[in-house]
Amino acid sequence: MKRTPLFSSSKNKPVFPFGVRHLLPLGVLVLCLGATLWAWGAVKESLEKQANLLYAQKTNRLKQELVSRLKDHEQVLLGGLGLFAASREISRAEWQKYVAAIRLDQNYPGILGVGYAVWLKPSELARHQQKVQAEGFSDYQLHPLGERENYTSIIYLEPFHWRNQRAFGYDMYSEPTRRAAMDRAKDQGGTSLSGKITLVQETEKAKQQGFLLYLPLYKKGLPTDTIAERHRAIQGFVYSPIRMNDFVLGVFGRLPTDLSFHIFDGSSANPSQTLFDSGSVNPTSLPLDYRPRYQSEAVVHLFGHSWTYAFSTLPEFEENLSAYVAHMTLVGGLLVSLLLTWIILNLQANRERALALAEQMTLDLRTSEEGLKQSQRHIEALFNTAPVGVLELDRSGVCILVNPWWETITGTRQVEALGQGWLKVFGQTDPTDLTREWEKAVQGETLRVSEFKLTRPNGSEVWVILRVSGLFSEAGELNGFIASLSDITDRKRVEEEQATVGAYTRSLIESSLDPFLTITPEGTISDVNEATVRVTGIAREKLIGTQFCLYFTDPEKAQKGYSFVFERGEVRDYRLDILGQNGQVTPVIFNGSVYKSLKGGVGGVFAAARDISQLVQTEKELQEAKLIAEAASEAKGSFLANMSHEIRTPLNAILGMTQLAFEAERDESQKELLTTVVDSANSLLAIINDILDFSKIESGKLSLEHLDFSLAQETRSLFKGLEFTAQAKGLELTYKAHPNVPDSLCGDPLRIRQVLTNLVGNAIKFTPSGRIEVLVEMLRQSEEGLRLQFSVSDTGIGIKESQLDGIFESFNQAQVSTTRVFGGTGLGLTICRQIARMMKGEVWATSVLGQGSTFYFTCLLEPARGEVFAAEPHQVEPPDLSGLKLLVVEDNPVNRKLMSKVLQGLGIKLHMVSNGREALDLLVETRVDLVLMDLQMPVMDGIEATLAIRGPKSPVLDPQVPVIALTADVFLEDKKRCLAAGMNDFLSKPFQKAELFRLLSKIKNQKQHAPVGREA
Q1: Cα 738 from chain centroid?
Q2: Contacts of the segment 83-91: beta carbons below 8 A, 24+ positions apart
Q3: CB-CB contact of 283 with 255 (8 Å)
Q4: pLDDT band, residue 822 (cuts 50/70/90)
Q5: Euclidean distance between the first and the last CA atom of the chain, given in angstroms as a whole number
Q6: Of 26, 450, 537, 996, which residue is least crowded by CB atoms under 10 Å?
Q7: Alpha carbon 724 to its chain's center
Q8: What's the rounded Cα separation, in Å, for the pair 640 and 688?
């Protein structure tokens, strides 16, 4: 059996080979280690339990003793209440005797005193101050000064030493933290603990955090069962000011040195709310890397307030623990286990050492002999098969051995080379270089001759590399030479081809007007073309070897683009700015890609930069032109908005006054004239609306609503308004909906009515006689929605086919004469087409001149999201609005007069003002049910006034009063501004009486169903 020695022959150290004989020491080691670990774990667990128990006891003691002291002091305050309850009135001397008997400094250290603060109404303040001044305190004055709803004043505070005298007359109710604790005591009728404060007794020297303890004192004989009763019965507060550091030290006397603890005000450990820090009172120097063994937090709720305790151990805590016992158990057990194992192993090893040593020596000898033979065979195989020609020469330079590859490379047979001198062995090679290199070999150098051509006996040439080394004895004597010859013909051919390709590539790069450069994986420049030199103004040799990103205005962005190339393999059109040596900035588009090395890895990055200076200049000019165009569009929109406002304001008065005159007029001929005025004003209003919509379309600000509506209700309302015009011309107007068209839909009903009104209105306008038919059908239903098609057919004058497309262009009609005969701006169909396209539909027409036309309108709608209820019809007759209080804010006197006439006789209590400032002044003193607010007014506009009404510091009696915008500003942006400011609705001028009455009736109904408190 083969044996391995336990001890090496040179060092005599045990080596522990594994075998059956080692099971015994291994078993002993495992058992001993197991027992050691069990004992160590048991001791450690026991010590940990003791430490946990000790930590819990110490922290609980700290919490309980502080709480206990506060509860003890509550009894002192209750005694003060008892003193008031037992006497009709407590004098300053009686209060002084009571506090002196308590002996605060001995029994309750840290508590500054026990005091009494009286509750005062503003009407009682002067009499109270006179009373205290009459007691001998001529300088007494309640502070801080200022008007407040209620006051308190500290009138008793004992002991009345210099520190407590600073609080004499102080109104604790004026400070939020104290007020919160006093309100809690007053509301709950019990003890209340304040939040963290700085007592007024504090000075700049040795300032501490503090808190207050309050008990409410109620007037004798008054009920205190409810909060409201306790508010009415409050007489004052018995309280104590407490300095936190003095309080804690007074409880414990001496702080523990093995624990650190903090007390925070509130239910979280917020450093900004620190009440007490044991480290500031009892500083302890801790190592920088010290980590407490135990840390904990606890929230204590007491007297309606919370404190958070944060505890952590100090080094002394851990020093008092017997942790070394567990360590000694572990170390001792390990030492015993290892010692036993070592003894057993050495006893076994002594027996085997001699046998193993002898056997190993025999084995080494055999192995050496076999290795020598194997090496000889390997050398012979390499000599005969290596693809390198090998030649051995004696010290005189005569060939004594060549391998087969020498014959292959040189073309000289082995038998011809043997016995020849070294020059003849190399055939027709120029001997000059060979002689020089051979002489170097004699000196002991290993040489590599530069590549040269060797001429074979058959005249062919081959490129080779020759290496020659001398063979020296141990004494340093030259015994001969070894020469090797490698064929590099293929490599030379590849190098020549690469040189040709490189020259061609270089010429292409240099001919480019764009900067080209190659960059290493490390980010340094390895090559550049002349264009790069020209753009940067830096010589090629100075660029090569420097960081690529340094030549850009934003090096970080350049480095990021370079990283993109490695992440993605390439980067395209990456925008950068080259910074030239003279400070000139050249904008470029950077393109780069990774190129491979000969080994297949990443060789670097090939980058090209295209100069886009002209493109950047063009973009700048286009951007400037765009800004000019946008400014012009904005100016036009602003002009149209102002024009609309200025026209609608008098138009509101015209329509309103005309309607009032029409209702009062009995003469039919006069009514006919008034009707003409209304029709003309409405035509003017329609033209204004068309111009505004067209402006919105041009600026891209026309938007759609997304509302549930009833199609039947909308069309019924639409045709009710158009039937009168059609009947006046003797036309038959019919409407039909296909059965497959649902009634409840979701979309923009106002815009649908606008398109249909325009199409049907045009049909009525251009149809002298006959009929007009309106049909709606559903083309298809899909996941996208419901595609409806409306068609309006008439028997009117018709349109030439060649003019059909032109009628949808802005300010265009089929013929110039049409405008003269029928009127119109030519904007209606343009607006209709844009609205249809916004609804993912279209508007088009078919027509036969002289026979009539059919206009088609398609749109994409959705099914209604909920149940659609029919709206109540607009109220035309004046409703019952008696008792309603209304404020109209309008700067135009004519419109104020119109509103007064419209609302006359309806029982409304009407207030009118001319600007927002006057409205605020009125609402400060008067409650109203509704405010109708104009927007554009002098002094203060409607938006500013509404923000003031709704603001957190609103001065008005009812900040939630409904506010309705009544304005000639009709853009969507105007409506959004109104709603954002807090307005409830939006009514545009000129308004309809029915719409106004509907709003007023809605407010009246809300008022009738409002809670009683809201009406107060």
Answers
A1: 52
A2: 84/217, 84/238, 85/220, 90/116, 90/156
A3: no
A4: very low
A5: 115
A6: 450
A7: 59
A8: 9
The mean per-residue pLDDT over the stretch 1-14 comes to 43
Helix 92-102 vs helix 23-86: crossing angle, to nearest 10: 150
Residue 155: partners with Cβ closer than 8 Å, 6 or more residues away: 92, 116, 117, 118, 132, 168, 169
Q: Is residue 939 a contact partner of residue 973, using CB atoms and an 8 Å limit?
A: no
Across the chain, mean pLDDT equals 80
Question: How far apart are alpha carbons 895 and 645 in whole angstroms?
Answer: 13
Burial class (CB in 10 A: 0-12, 13-18, 19+), 958: middle
Please indicate, yes or no, if residue 206 is contained in any of the structural domains.
Answer: yes
Among 611, 643, 677, residue at a domain's last position: 611
Question: Does the pLDDT of residue 456 top 70, yes or no?
Answer: yes
Question: What distance in Å separates the CA atoms of residue 391 and residue 412, rounded to the nearest whole number?
Answer: 12
Distance CA 964, CA 966 (A): 6
Last residue of a domain, one of 584, 611, 638: 611
Helix runs in 839-971, H state only: 893-902, 916-925, 942-950
What own/partner pairs with CB < 8 Å and gap ≥ 24 does 561-564 have? 561/590, 561/592, 562/519, 562/523, 562/592, 562/605
Residue-number span of the structural domain to which 1006 is assigned: 885-1015
- Predicted confidence band of residue 648 (pLDDT cuts 50, 70, 90): low
Task: Look at phi and psi of residue 61 and say left if phi exceeds 0, alpha if psi is from -120 to 50, else beta.
Answer: alpha
Structure-block tokens of residue 513: 């007007």
Shared domain for 430 and 478, answered yes or no, is: yes
As a whole number of angstroms, the distance between CA 987 and CA 641 comes to 16
For residues 242 and 260, state if they share a domain.
no
Contact status, residue 496 vs residue 511, Cβ threshold 8 Å: no
* Helix, strand, or coil (residue 389): strand
What letter does residue 174 receive in the DSSP assignment? G
* Beta-bridge mates of residue 707: 747
Q: Which of 171-180, 245-254, 779-788 has the lowest mean pLDDT?
A: 245-254
Q: Rounded CA gap, 759 and 358, in Å?
A: 120
DSSP sequence for 767-809:
-SSSEEEEEEEEEEEETTEEEEEEEEEE-SS---GGGTTGGGS
| Residue 778, strand partner residues | 788
- How many CB atoms neighbour CB 20 within 10 A? 6
1013: pLDDT strictly greater than 50: no
Q: How confident is the model at residue 785 (pLDDT cuts 50, 70, 90)?
A: very high
Q: What is the CATH number of the domain that holds 240?
A: 3.30.450.350
Q: pLDDT tens digit string along 320-368?
A: 665 555 566 667 777 777 777 777 777 767 666 756 766 776 677 677 6
Helical spans, DSSP H, in 87-242: 92-102, 104-107, 125-134, 162-165, 176-188, 227-233
Angle between helices 668-699 and 613-664 (to 10 degrees): 170
SS3 110: coil
Which CATH number goes with the domain that contains 459?
Answer: 3.30.450.20
Confidence check: pLDDT of 7 > 50 = no
Residue 67 exposure: Cα atoms within 13 Å on the Cβ side: 17
What CA–CA distance (Å, rounded) separates 737 from 773?
Answer: 11
